């Protein structure tokens, strides 16, 4: 076994993109650390998100500190800033997204049980306080990533990554009930 070269990696990614038919966006509410923001930007770009909705005191993707972890991947995403959650959610809904909050809340459900095989905007919140009550009330559904260890919560970047992956996994499953193609399958179908 060996790591994929750049050409093989591009083929594999192309084959996965063809299986993804749903749009993905992220709402970031008061994610203050530019390093966390940069990591979320990089994950969002890798998972094919189209847009970021930045609310309140959220750092901005083109700051020098965010760029250290984003490594220029912000060029693959559009982003808009908002002072309040209501305006952001109104625009998100107008763009056709279902709003799914990621939070440990009393009425939250396991993320894997939520229908994410549609256009979804995942909402993640502040590193310490999480999503505000106004944001939680604005979500179509609030979900959590079940944790079985001794740590009770995830870093916002890890939560966003898990959420993005679950959206894509469900989209692949909804398209044809098959796993994403392997490198060998992708190479067989796409000779370029």
Topology readout:
Elements (H helix, E strand, L loop, with lengths): L5 H14 L4 E6 L4 H13 L4 E5 L8 H7 L7 E5 L2 H10 L3 E5 L6 E2 L9 E5 L8 H6 L2 E4 L11 H21 L6 H7 L3
Helix pairs in contact: 2-3, 2-6
| Number of DSSP-assigned strands | 7
Q: Measured on Cα atoms, how large is the radius of gyration?
A: 17 Å
Tell me, what is the CATH class? Alpha Beta
Record the strand order, biggest sheet. 3-2-1-6-4-7-5
Overall helicity:
40-55%
Return the structural class. Answer: alpha/beta
Distance between the termini: 22 Å
How large is the count of helical segments?
7
* CATH overall fold name: Alpha/beta knot
Average pLDDT taken over every residue: 89
The major beta sheet can be summarized as:
7 strands, parallel
How big a fraction of the residues is strand? 15-25%
């Amino acid at each position: 076994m060996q790591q994929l070269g750049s050409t093989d990696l591009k083929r594999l990614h192309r084959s996965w993109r063809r299986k993804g038919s749903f749009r993905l966006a992220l709402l970031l509410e008061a994610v203050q650390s530019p390093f966390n923001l940069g990591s979320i930007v990089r994950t969002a770009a890798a998972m094919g998100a189209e847009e970021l909705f930045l609310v309140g005191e959220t750092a901005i993707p083109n700051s020098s500190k965010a760029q250290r972890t984003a490594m220029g991947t912000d060029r693959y995403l559009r982003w808009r800033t908002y002072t309040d959650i209501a305006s952001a959610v109104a625009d998100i809904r107008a763009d056709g997204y279902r709003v799914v909050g990621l939070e440990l809340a009393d009425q939250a459900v396991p993320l894997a049980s939520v229908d994410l095989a549609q256009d979804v905007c995942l909402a993640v919140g502040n590193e310490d306080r999480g999503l505000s009550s106004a944001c939680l009330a604005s979500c179509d559904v609030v979900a959590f990533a079940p944790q079985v260890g001794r740590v009770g919560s995830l870093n916002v970047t890890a939560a966003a990554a898990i959420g993005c992956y679950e959206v894509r996994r469900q989209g692949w499953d909804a398209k044809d009930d098959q796993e994403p193609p392997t490198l060998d399958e992708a190479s067989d179908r796409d000779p370029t």
